[in-house]
Amino acid sequence: MSPTNAKLVASLKREIAIDLRTNRTAASQEKALHTLIANALTRLGVRFVQEHRLGDGERLDFLVEDTVCIEVKKGAAGQPALRQIGRYLEYPQISAAIGIAMRWDNIPPTFRGKPVHTIELWRLVL
User: Fold this and answer.
1) I need a labelling partner for 40 at 20 to 30 A (CA). Which of 13, 23, 50, 108 fits?
2) How confident is the model at residue 1 (pLDDT cuts 50, 70, 90)?
3) CATH code of the domain containing 48
4) Pairing mode, strands 68-72 and 103-104
5) Has this prediction a pTM greater than 0.90?
6) Residue 80 DSSP symbol
7) What are phi and psi of 65, to 5 degrees?
8) Torsion angle of alpha carbons 33, 39, 42, 48, nearest 10°?
9) pLDDT (tens digit, 9 = 90+) per residue, 29-76?
10) Residue 2's pLDDT is what?
11) Cβ(55)–Cβ(44) under 8 Å?
12) Contact (Cβ atoms closer than 8 angstroms) between residue 80 and residue 108
């Protein structure tokens, strides 16, 4: 994990946790969760594009700093979500992925030779 990606993930976890403490129901509503994440990214001062078209019909929930994709799932996520992230990681401009979901099952720290970070919302709302 690069220091930049590690710092982004840690900062994003902190900012999402701040918002979830005041709006816990956002974790179960995908649109509200997207708004919460966009607000957190804005506060962090990072460049991002929401609903970014990557090509071949692929659409990232968020593209951060032109190289990091964020994929959001409102419930638990596992192998189907990992396959989706894997498709994104095949693009040369994507250097890392962050998966945000209520819970992640069996997600490796690297996939397709690139780092995959996860944020589990249940840990932030307790």
Assistant:
1) 108
2) very low
3) 3.40.1350
4) unpaired
5) no
6) H
7) 50, 35
8) 30
9) 788 889 988 999 999 899 999 999 988 888 999 999 999 999 998 777
10) 58
11) no
12) no
